[in-house]
Amino acid sequence: MRYYAGHQITIESYSATIGVTGGEEVTWSTYCTPYANIRYPKSSERLEGGRNTATRTAIFKVRHDSDTEDVTEKMRINYNGVWNILGVVFMGRDETIEITAQKKDG
């Protein structure tokens, strides 16, 4: 099956270490950089702490291959800002993966 997607995204994984002060330090590094088809099914705005905050939800559809097969909710997407991964759904064997993610602005 041929799959075309026009936006290159960066999926990042984190690692945690204990810092000099004894606290946890989280660093993010590139896990893979697939191309994705992106849909924006939902967005909302609300007032939080006196500031207007916008929340956007997006579905990133990527090809299922050896680079993307281990993507989890513990990772994040970097594409025009940071998106927290909410869910990962495999759409058939060796086809595509739909990653639902959310981003807050403001």
Structure described in brief:
This protein is mostly beta strands and 106 residues long. Helix content is 0%, strand content 66%. The model has no long low-confidence stretch (mean pLDDT 87).
Structure description:
This protein is mainly β and 106 residues long. It has a single domain, classed as Bacteriophage SPP1 head-tail adaptor protein (Thrombin, subunit H), CATH 2.40.10. Helices cover 0% and strands 66% of the residues. It contains no helices and eight strands. Strands 1-4-5-8-7-6-2-3 form an eight-stranded antiparallel β-sheet, with no helix packed on it. Strand 4 and strand 5 form a beta hairpin. The protein is flat, with a radius of gyration of 16 Å. It starts with 6 loop residues before the first strand and ends with a strand. The mean pLDDT is 87.
- Main sheet: which strands, in order across? 1-4-5-8-7-6-2-3
First CA to last CA: what distance?
Answer: 40 Å
> What does the radius of gyration come to?
16 Å
Q: What structural class do the secondary elements suggest?
A: mainly beta
Taken from the alpha-carbon principal axes, the silhouette is: flat
The CATH architecture: Beta Barrel
Low-confidence stretches: none
Question: Largest sheet, described in full?
Answer: 8 strands, antiparallel
What would CATH call the class?
Mainly Beta
Number of helices: 0
Q: Roughly what percent helix?
A: under 10%
